[in-house]
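anyone seen this seq b4? input:
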Amino acid sequence: MHQVKGFTLSCVIVIIAFLVSAIGAGLLADFFGVWKKPFIGASAAFFVVLSGYITAPSHKKTMSLVWFIVGAVSAWFLAGNSTYPEDYAQAYQPTLIPLTATYLSGLVALLICNVWHTRNKKSS
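predicted toks r here
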């Protein structure tokens, strides 16, 4: 029962991390006047995978992979049919830039989690 509570709390924290990172990245991108969608996706993916790893009560490496997969599927639906913004030369043309940025950021976070896991396992 303790594990169930731990994983439930972890899920809540990951969802909060997703919302905070997406909103924060959107506000920062708006402040700097850059295209929001790639930054929001990349930030959300990074923090979802990382917070999923950190907050998992056990099976941390597996949970970071699970959150990466959940995020990748979600990103496919949220950013899959993206177009360039209206102030770009290719305005309204389809692009994979936001989806690619999201996937790459999630992969970087997954690699960080794996390295972190390996180093912590060796030091124990």
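Residues 2-32 form the longest helix (31 residues). The chain has a mean pLDDT of 90. kinda curious what u guys think
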